[in-house]
Design a protein that fits this description.
The complex is a heterodimer of chains A (about 290) and B (about 325). Chain A is mainly α and about 290 residues long. Chain B is mostly helical. The radius of gyration of chain B is 24 Å and the shape is globular. The chains are: A mainly alpha (about 290), B mainly alpha (about 325). At the A-B interface, helix 5, helix 6, helix 9, helix 10 and helix 11 of A face helix 1, helix 6, helix 7, helix 12 and helix 13 of B.
């Protein structure tokens, strides 16, 4: 426990030496706070319709104006950060766990299973990402649950490949062979020796994929294939703004900005983390 | 080389086979039959029966799978549920637009990206290198559809320099050119950053090579060494990245085409997904996957041909 805190401190310290990584950390913390404190800091109910005050320009009451139904844009964007972060963190977390399990099984299990898994991973990775996502959405129907399933299906194979490769090299390393010769069970080897060694790189890759997932969530919600309205998502706010781009451009400008800032923040943080923790790690993220 | 080519192609075919099987299975994994899902809740039983017969859903499953594969291989991808036109015809109509968009986007991204990568190498270790690095990462991470919408707002709505929607008049190259500027800019921008980074990294590796030292010893300027001698070797890994990147270009194209209401694969498939038009979705996914596999396989073979080191590794 103590060592975990210590290594966290060390990571933050080395991040603070990298200005862009630090900027990324700042942006990410800001969005996290925004998402967690949404009910406290948003001035209005993000779902409250008020037709009389539709398409209002920014004012003291509505800092970022209102949308086509008179809903307060700032409140919707604050709640949108909740949608974006909860979906992307849940989905990448679950994808990471799936990838971890599949990768360990492929790397540690019998040879034939490994071959089957690798063919499966390769097949999914060789589909153009968006095509696969759209095919799954057609079958399951659009919605938040589908979005999470899609993200897991798209990204888990890549993580599994990474874990598999690491497991294969570790499997034949001296310390594992020594443990084996002392009669350790497979479970013990996997839990005590493989897992701690493969988790680090996985966490870095996951953190680098979060901006891609945020982008995918917003993009699909923009196409009306992700988060369903009226739940505020940066993507569907952007769509509302797009449809009224000529009459009131404030909405579209306001909806695009947090998206750009969040993806930038998470990208800078991910890069900073990689440089601080494991500079040798190859670029293997979704991009 | 020939064995490698055959092996590589067989692997691509195997992957395509697995993908087709998975797609076919997916339709049957969900509750409810595809015909009623496609037609919606208001469909009459007669209409449903018609569609079931037309899609061959009343036949035994093995014969369905066989027909699916037979038809796909012979180019028959079924019919659009709504417009009743052959799916393949719709795809072939849309594909040139997306292909052109991808090529133009990649072309400007390659020129600028390679240039920025070389500049970063020339100024390596200086603040300039750092600024270029931050610039590349920013370009990589910014969402293409946000770039597209902001560009639309600035250049079409406010300045009125460029058309907001469509692909330009048919037979009028100037209007087509004006219509592709913003979409290609939005699709290509993340590639500028990506390529700049790739070129910089692979060039820094090359800079330590013997032939670079020789070129320097002849007194060539750093600029000449970078652009003429290092770039030639450093560009090779970029080829495979560009080929694999076709997938991500397609992703951006799907979003960007929708923003500009530009005809293409993106608009075709998104409207089909919204209407649950199964044959069009499955056909498009299949064709694009096949195309993608062909591109990636060709790129691998091209690299093996261009780079003697890869060739030697394959031989041994």
């Amino acid at each position: 426990m103590f060592s975990a805190v210590e290594s966290l401190m060390r990571t933050v310290k080395s991040l603070s030496r990298d200005p862009m990584g630090f900027l990324g950390l700042g942006l990410v913390v800001m969005f996290l706070l925004m998402a967690m404190l949404a009910p406290l800091i948003s001035p209005f109910d993000p779902l409250k319709i008020n037709v009389q005050s539709k398409f209002m320009e920014p004012s003291l009451a509505h800092w970022l104006g209102t949308d086509q139904l008179g809903r307060d844009t700032l409140s919707r964007i604050i709640y949108g950060s909740r949608t974006a972060l909860s979906i992307s963190l849940t989905a990448t977390g679950l994808a990471g766990i799936c990838g971890l399990l599949l990768g360990l099984v492929a790397g540690f299990g019998p040879r034939w299973l490994d071959n089957v898994f690798v063919l499966l991973f390769d097949s999914i990775s060789s589909l153009p990402m968006i095509m696969f996502a759209l095919a799954v959405i057609t079958v399951l129907g659009p919605g938040t649950g589908t979005l999470i399933v899609v993200i897991i299906l798209i990204s888990a194979p890549g993580y599994a490949r990474l874990i598999r490769a690491q497991t294969l090299t570790l499997k034949n390393s001296d310390f594992v062979l020594a443990e084996k010769s002392m009669g350790a069970s497979s479970g013990r080897i996997i839990l005590l020796h493989l897992l701690p060694n493969v988790v680090g790189p996985l966490v870095i890759i996951l953190s680098m994929d979060i901006p891609v997932v945020i982008m995918l969530e917003a993009g699909l919600s923009y196409l009306n294939l992700g988060v369903r309205p009226p739940t505020p998502s940066w993507g569907n706010i952007l769509y509302d703004g797009y449809t009224s781009i000529r009459s009131s451009p404030t909405l579209v400008i306001a909806a695009g900005a947090p998206l750009v800032l969040a993806t930038l923040g998470f990208t800078f943080l991910g890069e900073g983390l990689r440089d601080a923790l494991d500079p040798k790690l190859q670029l293997m993220s979704l991009r | 080389m020939l064995t490698y080519a055959i092996k590589r192609s067989l692997l691509a075919l195997l992957i395509l086979f697995v993908v087709m099987l998975a797609m076919y299975a997916m339709v049957f994994l969900v509750p409810g039959d595809p015909a009623s899902i496609a037609l919606g809740p208001r469909a009459t039983p007669e209409l449903k029966q018609q569609l079931i017969e037309r899609m061959g859903l009343d036949q035994p499953i093995l014969s369905q799978v066989y027909h699916f594969f037979y038809n796909a291989v012979t180019g028959d991808l079924g019919y659009d549920v709504w417009s009743k036109r052959p799916v393949l015809a719709e795809i072939l109509e849309a594909f040139p637009y997306t292909f052109l968009l991808g090529v133009v986007a990649l072309a400007w991204a390659l020129i600028l990206g390679v240039f920025l990568g070389c500049a970063a190498v020339i100024y390596r270790g200086t603040p300039m290198d750092r600024i270029l690095g931050i610039l590349s990462v920013s370009m990589i991470s910014v969402p293409s559809f946000v770039v597209a919408i902001y560009a639309l707002l600035i250049f079409a709505v406010w300045l009125r320099w460029l058309p907001a929607i469509g692909a330009g008049e048919i037979g009028d190259p100037w209007s087509q050119f004006k219509a592709i500027i913003m979409p290609a800019f939005a699709v290509g921008i993340s590639w500028v950053g990506y390529l700049a980074r790739m070129v910089r990294a692979s060039m820094l590796e090359v800079m330590g090579a013997n032939h670079i030292r020789t070129a320097r010893a002849f007194g060539l300027s750093e600029r000449r060494v970078v652009f003429k001698h290092a770039l030639r070797v450093a560009i090779i890994p970029t080829i495979s990245i560009v080929a694999v990147g076709f997938g991500s270009i397609l992703s951006s194209a799907v979003f960007v085409e929708t923003v500009f209401s530009r005809p293409g694969i993106g608009t075709l498939i998104t409207s089909a997904v919204l209407k649950r038009n199964y044959p069009v979705v499955m056909g498009t996914v299949l064709v694009m996957t096949a195309f993608y596999l062909i591109v990636v396989t060709l790129a691998d073979l091209l690299i093996a041909r261009l780079d003697p080191r890869v060739r030697d590794v394959l031989r041994s």
